[in-house]
Amino acid sequence: MRHIKALAAYLFPKALWDKRWMIWLCVGILTYALFDLLWCEQTTYYPFHFKATYLNILFFALLSSFPAVFFKSDLWQTLLLCVIDLIMIANLIFCHFYDMHIPIQFYTPDIPVLALKESIIASFKPSYLLFPLLTLAGLVLSRKAGRRQDRSPLSGARIRGYVFLTILFAVFYLRPFTVKGGLREYFDERYLTVGDENASALIPTYGLVALAAYDLTSSDELSETDKTAINQWLDEHARRQQQHVPVSSNVPRNLIMIICESLESWPIGRHINDFEITPNLNGLVTDTSAYFARKIVPQTYRGQSADGQLLMLAGLLPTRHAIPYCHRYCNGNTYVTLADAIREQGGQSLLVSMDNPRIWHQGAIARSFGFDRYVTSEEYVTDETDYPSGSVLADSSFLAQTIEKIRHGELLSPDRPTLLTLVTHSGHYPFRPEAQQPIPQLPHDMPTELKDYIATAHYVDKALGRFIHQLKRLPDWDKTLVVIAGDHGVPPHIRQEMTAGYDDVTGKDDFIPLIILNSPVNATEERLIGQVDVYTTILDAAGMYNFKWKGMGFSAFDDRRPPFVISPRMKIYADTAAPTHKEIQSACDAPEYSDLIIRGNLLRELYPASGDK
Predict the structure, then answer these.
(1) DSSP string for 290-332
(2) φ, ψ for residue 92 (rounded to 5)?
(3) pLDDT tens by residue, 80-115
(4) Which of 74, 327, 478, 537 could cross-link 556 (Cys pair, CB 3.0–4.6 Å)?
(5) DSSP 3-state assignment of 74?
(6) DSSP 8-39
(7) What pLDDT band is residue 154 in, cutting at 50, 70 and 90?
(8) Cα(415)–Cα(350) distance, rounded to whole angstroms?
């Protein structure tokens, strides 16, 4: 027993446990615990069921207290905690939108933070001020303790005790990763097996540092077994797609696709106290040449808008891992998309977006998707924004200037087919304040977020109505196929606040719309359709169903398509018809194979485009 006490005294000397270090250690513990609580408030308190969560708090609090051990001054300890506070607050704000941590690729000085200032302000909560207040309290208490006693000098015993204690906690913290074959394998297994809600919970359970290390170490090498399984799935899927008889063989002169930010289906056709939210879209969907699918199930994951583009322009399902595909798989990857399909018809393709090219990697997406031209805000006049301090061109002016560019021959070609993809912005959170243009018919007790969303939908509807009206006056209107689609629903946390008590107005599901004008099929579709089906549906409606890459979905016009949709969160949306076991298994396997295709950059290798060597 005496030897044990001597060993404990040697490994954990009294010199380590002075009041100043204990103060900073407690501040660190409270800081990490606060982050976990605020993160779980937005996701789930599931992590607090695990010992790993508490071990994570203690381990990183211990690591963060090293300046108090090695330096007599409080300066370095205070600066370190200030940096940690900023990182935590930034991740909490990011989680509010995207239900995930900030990818490691975003920790670079070239990310235009000011372009997101409205979103940051709208998502900042007063509780986030507790982080700097804790750091300030630690500084005050440490200085007070320093006045009462001499600060402990740096000694070998002090360093030895801190290092051993840190190593001891590190062994317990890292043990799960070593047992399961390494950090990458450990997190790969969890991101593919736990539900989406629990996947978000991996942050407080293992910490931001572990997820950042995962971002850096994820491998994209595929085994031959993986490639064989992918080919077998694609061959079987293609066989089922080939059973469908295309609804059109006529390729339009112009294919204009308008991707509307956060546009859900419920406002279309909805009246609230005699107020018609979307009068222009209501008129369009009843046109004799219109196809309207109301129940498109969003299949975006953590990449949100960029995922929507992947689904509808490339026919792939988004990655289900910690890293959205746009952060890691754009600059080096190439995809087979609608741009390739129109090019095969001798046409050209343009992507027009007013967002900063680095926000969600829009510039990289334009290149990797094979667009011939990427049109940015530099070619537009920013004369209207959604907020007085905003920097992104609002939809009304954006679409008005676009129609003028079309009239002047800047965007559409007079002698060959053109794919013109327009990405709107005004539906982005925070929504346009209803107070800017009050709608007196809305109930006074309606949540402000819902009022703002309705006002935004009404504003976007008016902008779309003017654009389509002017488009119809052009000589090529009867040769133009127009597709209007929402890129995703309102982010889950925001939608929960927005719809509180008003589920009867918004519905419980965040379905997004698909509207096709000058469609070969005139119908209002009430059956469920997956967002990945939009790509295949456009190929079918545009007379390009013979294009070799038909995507991982089915045409909405295909009566044989499965009567159900599986979301990335593995929720099954089903029509009344009972799916077969084979259909369910194929749909469940699709996200995994799409993930492998993206990570292995296989799509153009499997489906080489015209001109590829």
Answers:
(1) EEEEEEEEP---TTTHHHHHIIIII--PPP-SSS-HHHHSSSS
(2) -65, -40
(3) 999 999 999 988 988 776 667 777 766 766 555 555
(4) 537
(5) coil
(6) HHHHS-GGG--HHHHHHHHHHHHHHHHHHHHH
(7) low
(8) 16
User: Residues near 512 by Cβ (< 8 Å), separated by ≥ 6?
Assistant: 263, 264, 265, 296, 298, 485, 486, 487, 488, 489, 531
Q: What values do phi and psi take at 420, rounded to 5?
A: -115, 110
> Token digits for 483?
């597709």
**DSSP code of 257?**
E
pLDDT at 306: 87
CB half-sphere exposure, 58, CA atoms < 13 A: 14
| Residue reference for tokens 């789930």 | 44
Residue 329 CB partners (closer than 8 Å, separation 6+): 319, 368, 598, 599, 601
Cβ of 563: how many Cβ atoms within 10 Å? 16
Compute the distance between CA of residue 395 and CA of residue 427 in angstroms, rounded to an integer.
Answer: 9
CA–CA distance, 603 with 594 (Å, rounded to integer)? 9
Q: Which two tokens stand for residue 348?
A: 């050209």
Cβ 90 vs Cβ 102: under 8 Å: yes
Structure tokens at 59: 């381990």
Residues forming beta bridges with residue 271, ordered by sequence position: 276
Task: Please report the pLDDT score of residue 357 as a whole number.
Answer: 76
Token duo for residue 238: 């293609």
- Cβ-based neighbours of 331, under 8 Å, separated by 6 or more: 361, 364, 367, 368
Residue type present at position 304: Q
Give the C-alpha separation, 6 to 230, whole Å: 61
613: confidence class by pLDDT, cuts 50, 70, 90:
very low
CA–CA separation, 395 vs 593, rounded Å? Answer: 36
d(CA 345, CA 374): 20
Distance between CA atoms of residues 415 and 232, nearest Å? 40
Q: How many residues does the chain have?
A: 613
Structure tokens at 323: 């890293």
8 vs 330, higher pLDDT: 330
Q: Which tokens is 276 given? A: 């018609």
pTM (global) more than 0.85: no
Q: What is the pLDDT of residues 356-390, one digit of tens each?
A: 776 667 888 899 999 999 999 999 999 998 877 67
Task: Determine the Cα–Cα distance for residues 136 and 79; give it in Å rounded to an integer.
Answer: 11
279 in Cβ contact with 459 (< 8 Å): no
The DSSP-derived string for 389-442 is T--SBPHHHHHHHHHHHHHTTSSS-SSS-EEEEEE--TTSSSPPPGGGS--TTS
Whether the Cβ atoms of residue 137 and residue 130 lie closer than 8 Å to each other: no
Burial per residue of 494-503, b for 16 or more beta-carbon CB atoms within 10 angstroms, e otherwise: bbeebbeeee
Provide mean pLDDT across the span 559-569. 86
Opening angle at CA 57, ends 54 and 58, nearest 5: 90
H/E stretch holding 566: strand 564-566
pLDDT digit string, tens, across residues 295-305? 999 999 866 88
The mean pLDDT of 192-219, rounded to a whole number, is 68
Type of residue at 363: G
